[in-house]
């Protein structure tokens, strides 16, 4: 009997069965791990998809806001330039009120855009 035959003879059927059982357990654990990773990938893909939708809507909102604010912002800065510092107190008070109105208008525009964005997200999720 050579070396190989003596080694195989020493391995019993019970040892082989135990080894096969261990291999089956290892395969089952690997499959569970694969399922877990697949689930995590699915969740990550869905989260990324939803985040990209929000990002696209946010970019559109900012582009719209910039295009809407472009002329307004320039006119506002022209009206409140530093050159008019010698204006009377009433003029300063009126400018302060105008600034508050302008800020309030910006806040309302932002709320409208935010609501529009949320509506678009909800509509997209319903598809």
UniProtKB/TrEMBL annotation:
It comes from the Eukaryota. This is Uncharacterized protein.
